Amino acid sequence: MRPSGRKLDQMRAVSFERGFSKHAEGSCLVRFGDTHVLCTASLEERVPPWLRNGGKGWVTAEYGMLPRATGDRMRREASAGKQGGRTQEIQRLIGRSLRAVVDLEALGERQITIDCDVIQADGGTRTAGITGAWVALHDCLKWMEARSMVKVDRVLKDHVAAVSCGIFAGQSVLDLDYLEDSAAETDSNFVMTGSGGIVEIQGTAEGVPFSQEQFLELMLLARSGISGLVQMQKDTIA
């Protein structure tokens, strides 16, 4: 039995709230159960120096957790003077995931930055961030399309979403919350496109190594979960 009472293949309650931020070109508050992440997309009419005059744009991401996103207050990374390794790893993952479904030439020499700020954390913040970031990116591109800057269907090639899976109490489960994540025997994150392409898989045995058969079980769970998330993205932007 899972601590939440969910079935092995059952996601937490998921929701997307578009237009959450008044000023951003695109924004979405995504909720995976008690994990809440605010994703905002900001457009700049410039690209990093190493991309200038190359005819391509860029999509990047930044990630952070508010001090009381967790049970105890965390020190702001800004006050520490540097980002932690976990923060850097997650924001790079979010950026890679979004660029996998973006035609950078069709975007033109512009940069879109997605900020994923965790308001409340209960496991799966990176997967929620990726899934909500896609909605914020889509709405930013719609904002641009309304101003005759781009065509959304030329820039955005596919959906992308992510979900965690793991082995908890000897069973393969979908969408781990914190209680499961902190005690999981195996913890993994899957990032996939709407058409089923694999963008990235992160998997770690926390104790006993997992088998190929167990990995395939996790993969099937992830495909099912991501298929549902992509459908929710489609319903949200319809």
Automatic annotation (TrEMBL):
Every Exoribonuclease phosphorolytic domain range: 10-140, 160-224
Record key words, sorted: Nucleotidyltransferase, RNA-binding, rRNA processing, Transferase, tRNA processing, tRNA-binding
Record-listed phosphate binding positions: 86, 124-126
Gene3D superfamilies the record matches: GHMP Kinase, N-terminal domain
Family: Belongs to the RNase PH family.
Gene Ontology MF: a single term: 3'-5'-RNA exonuclease activity
The organism's place on the tree of life at top rank: Bacteria
InterPro entries: ExoRNase_PH_dom1, ExoRNase_PH_dom2, ExoRNase_PH_dom2_sf, PNPase/RNase_PH_dom_sf, Ribosomal_Su5_D2-typ_SF, RNase_PH, RNase_PH_bac-type, RNase_PH_CS
Name of protein: Ribonuclease PH
Encoding gene, per UniProt annotation: rph
Pfam families xrefs: RNase_PH (PF01138), RNase_PH_C (PF03725)
Subunit relationships: Homohexameric ring arranged as a trimer of dimers.
BP terms from Gene Ontology: rRNA 3'-end processing; rRNA catabolic process; tRNA processing
